[in-house]
Structure formats: C-alpha cells, structure tokens
Amino acid sequence: MMLWSMRWNSLFSRSKLTLIKWRSMRRKVWFRVLDRVERAIVNLTIGCVERVHSPKLERIISTIVNKLTNAMKSMLEKLTEDIGRPLAQKLSRIAWNWGNKSAVQWAEDYVFIQYLTVMQMDVLRIFKT
Questions:
Q1: How confident is the model at residue 4 (pLDDT cuts 50, 70, 90)?
Q2: What's the predicted TM-score (pTM) here?
Q3: What tens digit of pLDDT does each residue of 8-64 get?
Q4: Euclidean distance between CA atoms 102 and 110, whole angstroms
Q5: What is the 3-state secondary structure (H, E, C) of the chain?
C-alpha cells in the first residue's frame, strides 16, 4: 500500500501550475514561449485536476514547465550555468590538486560562481572594445 501512495505523489498540483502560469505571465513569457496547444494543456490541467496522476501528462507538463522556467531565467543566471559553474569546478579541482582541501566547496558556492561569471563577462567586454 505504501508503494502505491508514493507512486502517485505527483510533482504537479493545481497550485504549483497556477503559480508557474502567474509568474510566466508576469514576466511576459507565457504567450511568447508557449504555443496555443501548450497553453491549453496547462489551462485544462489547472481547471480539471487537483494533482496530475498520469505519467504521460506529467511528462508533457514537465516539458512545458521547463520551457517556461528556462525562458524566465535572467541573462546572469544563464551565463552563471554556462560559464561560471564550469569555471568554478575547474578552479576547485586545480586548487584541490595543489593541496587546498577546502577548495572542494568552491564548485558549489553560488556566490563564488556568480563572481567568476561577472569577472568573465568583464574580461570578454574588455577584449571586444
């Protein structure tokens, strides 16, 4: 009985989908990123079910939510993932190999990753001028 209740513990409820829809509309990505069918799927899901139980519907909703969350990320957040995180991991490995055992934490320190991203953006801006 416990496995069955864990299986149907869905990631998407009406309240979560409503919040995602509201945020994406506030950031003006709802109509820009989603086509009519995707918007209809989310609206029908919000209106018809309290919690998503179908694995197929959950996959579809997950794809739509990923599109929305990626579109709502700021440029700094995107660059942080693309530039800052790999750079922090590389610096962390180098410092750890040199004997700095606390350097392992650098790869997951979000403030350090943002710092590296901003510094890298500044370096790129210097070479463009």
A1: very low
A2: 0.65
A3: 456 889 999 999 999 999 999 999 999 999 999 999 999 999 999 999 999 999 999
A4: 15
A5: CHHHHHHCCCCCEHHHHHHHHHHHHHCCCHHHHCCHHHHHHHHHHHHHCCECCCHHHHHHHHHHHHHHHHHHCCHHHHHHHHHHHHHHHHHHHHHHHCCCHHHHHHHHCHHHHHHHHHHHHHHHHHHHC
